[in-house]
Amino acid sequence: MIMFLFCSDSYPPRDSHFTTHSPLQSYTMMGSGKGASRGLIPRLCEELFARIQASTTTGWTAKVEVSYMEIYLEKVRDLLTPTSQRPLRVRQHATMGPYVEDLTSHAVDGFEMVQGLMDEGAKVRLQPPACYLPS
User: Fold this and answer.
1) Confidence at residue 132, expressed as pLDDT on a 0 to 100 scale
2) pTM of the model as a whole
3) Stretch 13-34: mean pLDDT, rounded?
4) CA–CA separation, 62 vs 70, rounded Å?
5) What is the DSSP letter of 130?
6) Rounded distance, CA 1 to CA 41, Å?
7) Torsion sign over Cα 48, 51, 57, 60
8) Domain regions of the chain by residue span
9) What topology does CATH give the domain 23-132?
10) Partner of 127 for a Cys bridge, out of 10, 22, 35, 67, CB 3.0 to 4.6 A?
């Protein structure tokens, strides 16, 4: 199982050199555009799907699911279910660790699907990603 943990740039990090809201955090994670300006998440997803594709010739299979949340003013929101306005709760499982209760998960089979979900989620963020902030 592969899991990406992504804390929104809107959440004030502790013991960090970033300010309460730093566009650099979103830019580092998401980037802007294609090529060299891609962020960590697009690069990791592209590599993940490339490795899955290369491994399918050996009979190996994988199931990839995507969730997208925003943490803003200490409230957690599911960005892939924008009609739900109630904040989600972070819970602690005894053996699996922390998780977000009722966070939706969407099956994807390629980076294009991940990019589409990220684009849809970015449209409903309360704090816009760095690539949408005016310069």
Assistant:
1) 47
2) 0.70
3) 56
4) 26
5) G
6) 17
7) negative
8) 23-132
9) Kinesin (3.40.850)
10) 10
pLDDT band at 101 (very low <50, low <70, confident <90, very high): very high
* Average model confidence (pLDDT) across the chain: 76
For helices 40-55 and 23-30, angle between their N-to-C axes, nearest 10 degrees? 20
pLDDT at 73: 83
DSSP 117: H
Tell me how far apart the alpha carbons of residues 94 and 11 are, in angstroms, rounded to a whole number: 25
Mean pLDDT comparison of 18-22, 26-30, 52-56, highest-scoring range:
52-56
For the packed helices 111-123 and 40-55, what is the interaxial angle rounded to 10 degrees? 150
Q: 38 to each of 18, 24, 27, 42, 55, how far by Cα in Å?
A: 20, 13, 9, 6, 25
The residues, any chain, with a CB within 8 Å of residue 67's CB and separated by 6 or more, are 78, 80, 100, 103, 104, 105, 106
Length of the chain: 135
